[in-house]
Amino acid sequence: MMSASTGRALAYADHIGQSIADILTTPIGSRVMRRSYGSFIPELIDAPTTPANRLRLIAASAQAIMKWEPRTTVRRITLATASDGTTQLNIERVDRSQAATTLQTVSIGGLAA
């Protein structure tokens, strides 16, 4: 298990976190040999900040993680929006063969105001 940015070895939980960030930020259809890989999040980035669109972001996140990262189970996903418009997904997950809950934050850009 290797870091995509440094090439160094990663711990089990860190590798899962890296994988989740890649899944969530990859548009579906952009991988040549795996067209269904990724999530619908990139399509929702410029959507207005409405309760329905916030729910769509959470659902798209959970769906993509459940489909593409079998080493973890999602317990909860919440959204946080900063004053600069940046949206962050706060993911609470339990990794397989690990008893502890892991908290992960993935920045996904921002919803339109």
What would you note in describing this structure?
- With 113 residues, the protein is an alpha+beta fold.
- The chain contains three helices and three strands, in the order αααβββ.
- The chain has helices at residues 12-25, 41-44, 51-68; strands at residues 72-81, 87-95, 101-107.
- Strands 1-2-3 form a three-stranded antiparallel beta sheet, covered by helices on one side.
- It is globular, with a radius of gyration of 14 Å.
- It starts with 11 loop residues before the first helix and ends in a 6-residue tail after the last strand.
- Residues 13-92 form the IraD/Gp25-like domain.
- InterPro entries: IraD/Gp25-like (IPR007048).
- This is IraD/Gp25-like domain-containing protein.
Could you say what the CATH architecture is?
A: Roll
Class in CATH? Alpha Beta
Look at the structure and give the mean pLDDT.
89
What shape does the CA trace take? Answer: globular
Strand content: 15-25%
Query: Could you tell me how far the N terminus lies from the C terminus, measured between alpha carbons in angstroms?
Result: 39 Å
> Over all CA atoms, what is the radius of gyration?
14 Å
Number of separate strands:
3
Q: What portion of residues is helical?
A: 25-40%
How do the SSEs run, as a string of H and E?
HHHEEE
Number of helices: 3
The domain tally reads: 1
Low-confidence stretches: none
- How are the strands of the biggest sheet laid out side by side? 1-2-3
Largest sheet: 3 strands, antiparallel
Briefly note the structural class of the backbone. alpha+beta
Oligomer: single chain
